[in-house]
Amino acid sequence: MRKLGSIGPPLSECWKFYRILIRQQDDVLAGKSDEEAFIHGLKRFPVLTKVTVTPAAHGFLFNPLYQTPMISSFPEGFNYPIPRGWPLPSHDQPEEVYSLPWKRLNEVQKEKFHGFRIVARALAEQKNDVVEFSVDSRLLRTGINCSILGDACEEYNHLATLLKKPGFRHLDLSFTLAGTWQSLPHEKLHDILREAGDLEELSLATTGIDAENEHRNLHNVTPVPLKDIFPFENWPKLQHFELSRLIVSESDVISFLSELPATVRSVTLSFLTFVDSENHWHSFLAKMREEIRESRLWSDRRRNVTVGCNQDISLPGRAECIGNEVDEFLYGDGQNLFLDPPN
Predict the structure, then answer these.
(1) Separation CA 30–CA 69 (nearest Å)
(2) Which residues on neighbouring strands pair with residue 240, listed in sequence order?
(3) Residue 262 lies in a domain
(4) What does the pLDDT look like over 283-301, one tens digit per residue?
């Protein structure tokens, strides 16, 4: 990890080096040599079992998420605009890239998700032993255009092919919603998840609904019952389950958790928006503890619960993850760390 403010090249030199990197990237994309290299890697590393696609490989300035050979070769103290591999909602980003149906996007727009497309295609078409696929936004408010689930397209078919693979055990998915929670094609998502009969770990994240309007318009949002999204009956080996930025009801989440397979050992819930409890974690955890102590929830075994939130953090891609303290409250004599909402 490099310290902020460490001595590095002058900004003029950083800019010159950055422009070289951009030209090299354009050449790679134009020649499709990145896809060729990935396919070559699949052939050369037959014991490879996990592939991760993320827009956050560069992490934060001087603190990359992955020390790839390219990132490791950067000059000490290299100051550069941190690239994000997927579109982020902003004034300078074409809105249609992440809000229009997939079938209405042209090829240039679809290529905003270039990495996901070439990886999914290669994993579906090339011989490999990959049984773990992570499409991970790393808490950034972005993801793959969710309408690939609703439209007949090769990206959906490639993902379905991968999930059908015998022994496929780990899946992380991050989707961008088209402005409203109802834009998530939950029935198609249910269908494609049902293909992964050997699944052991699952994480689903969305961008939620528009941050400016989400609390004001919650009364107009009807959450999709979680059982209509996740076919738990098809996952007898499931051990870990994770949700992030879903619009839910407190009662439905608790009912859903009570039906988890007996094999599940841990649950992570992050940035959930509750429509029936004034959007407060305090009420939800208190209800969970009541259900546990009345043996209506998880009477067979104790599950570890982690809550992700941004109580004191407003920076994109960062959060507080509270695990031990939540377990102490649910199963022991610990305190509820979330404040009781005002009356």
Answers:
(1) 21
(2) 201, 266
(3) yes
(4) 999 999 999 999 989 988 8
> How many domains is the chain partitioned into structurally?
1
Triad 52, 56, 62: Cα angle to 5°? 125
- Neighbouring-strand partners of residue 243: 204, 269
Please, are residues 253 and 272 in contact by the beta-carbon 8 Å criterion? Answer: yes
Domain span holding position 164: 13-306
DSSP result, 4-27: TT-----HHHHHHHHHHHHHHHHH
Structural domain contains residue 160: yes
Residue 121 counted as domain residue: yes
Q: By the 8 A CB rule, do 193 and 154 touch?
A: no
pLDDT digits (tens, 9 = 90+) for 152-191: 899 999 999 999 999 999 999 999 887 677 788 999 999 9
- Degrees, nearest 5: CA angle 308-313-316: 85
Pick left, alpha or beta for residue 139 (phi over 0 → left; psi -120 to 50 → alpha; otherwise beta): left
263-285: buried (b, 16+ CB within 10 Å) or exposed (e) per residue? ebeebbbbbbbbbebebbbebbb
Coil/strand/helix, residue 189 = helix
Query: pLDDT (tens digit, 9 = 90+) per residue, 3-32?
Result: 444 578 999 999 999 999 999 999 999 999
Lookup result for tokens 């088209």: 178
Residue 318 lies in a domain: no
Q: Which of 35-44, 276-285, 307-316 has the lowest mean pLDDT?
A: 307-316
